[in-house]
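REQUEST FORM: STRUCTURE PREDICTION
Request ID: SP-0412
Submitted by: Lab K.M.
Chain count: 1
Length (residues): 97
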Amino acid sequence: MGQLGFQELFVIFLIALLVFGPRKLPELGKSLGKGLREFKRATEDLKSSWEDHMKDVEEPFKEATKDIHRECEPRQCEPRRYAQLHARIFARIHATC
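STATUS: Completed
RESULT:
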């Protein structure tokens, strides 16, 4: 589906003018503008809260990665010790989320 051209918009405007009349058309346009503005604000609020929530979730994972690398270098640590660190740290992350 492509962009609406001038002819399509003109036909839509004429149909709206015939259906609603010249008195109601400005009110409908104003209502439509308010609705679109409210929708845009709501989506921006949702996006902002989503980003804030993701930051809250990401912090424990970053701290856990630092803890793992501080206590045991992955390539030099024995697998069992490394698995124990992972389990302990991710249990702590799960408790905070």
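NOTES: DSSP finds two helices and no strands in the chain.
Reviewed by: T.R.
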